[in-house]
């Protein structure tokens, strides 16, 4: 078994690799639905809200994937700790195991924090690739926590014409830290002429944005339809519980396309869409859903360039174990081939 810490995972995992792994998985699921088995994940609430704790959760996310030659079991264990930023730790803490289902041998045990961040971002990257205006020049990042970091990297990876990044966070200092760290870690974007600016308000950040990335724990919509461009594309990866909400009902109802990564999980966890569906005054319901991410990749849902340029679209991500499995499996196979990490005998 190869044990891979976060630094080793970071050295191997690129955004392009993750996006390719996700697209390959979705094509495989289309062609061979029985090759990927992903039961609903188990979510256990932790630490009720109090003066000393924000409520978090613990998740168990198993998936079994057959790649055409061999079958693997991949399990991610996640603990979401909302108070961790105060401890200088990431909010989402995770580990992942990859096993051979034929022998039961564990092939890899790896840190799952970076895998989670990159695979979540890669989902937004895939959605943006198919839904956003191909001539997009400005992206807004609302919420500058760990998930937002790679989400921005994903959008820049698939949108070569972007030249302006607008940042907003409730704490301006954290937005400034995000800006400095992102520029330091990804100097290639600055070298391509991309400017990064911290905005004083959400309204200023989103007003001219072609792509809007949301990654917050908000419980009400962050902006209304009249505050954004009529052909913007929105990636919403926060609001992962039914009581949370980042995207207002006015925006959801106005969207020409609403796509989700995993419908089954979304009906239990996608607070934005759950609340819109429950609101009798909102003209959007689950029957208005345009499709799942799979439908974009396999061509069932297709947008022409003209449609992508002129239509308002929303991608809602709740995540699924199969996406983690696709990315983690790539890393585990590299580790086995190249002897990466630390070899441990069980």
From TrEMBL:
Cellular component per GO?
cytoplasm
Name the chain's protein.
Ornithine cyclodeaminase family protein
Residues in the signal sequence:
none
InterPro entries documented for this protein? NAD(P)-bd_dom_sf, ODC_Mu_crystall, ODC_N
Pfam families in UniProt: OCD_Mu_crystall (PF02423)
